[in-house]
Amino acid sequence: MKDDRERLRHILDAIAMIEKYSREGEAAFRRSDLIQNWMVRHIQVIGEAARALSPELRRRHPEIPWADIIGMRHILVHDYFDIDLNLVWLVVSHDLPSFQQEIQAILKQIE
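Request: output the structure for the sequence above.
Response:
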């Protein structure tokens, strides 16, 4: 479980990094390549950490769309020039807050 705990912490750390700039709002996100790249990079980290979680942990938490999270990382890494910034902002503004709570709850269960 140590590896899963570490990976869950990586996910939470990446979410915290995204939150540093998402608080500035969508207009700041749209204006700044730096903020866009910052968020994309940390979403990649989230996907990589999710991919590295044990299959057992992912099976125990089917409420989390692991395949979608890992798939998003794949798109961001391999289709870099076709990134949909609308989708990135949607993930940041709508999906990450509840995902963060779910990851915190899982981490609390296994610590």
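The helical segments are 2-22, 26-31, 33-52, 55-60, 66-78, 85-110.
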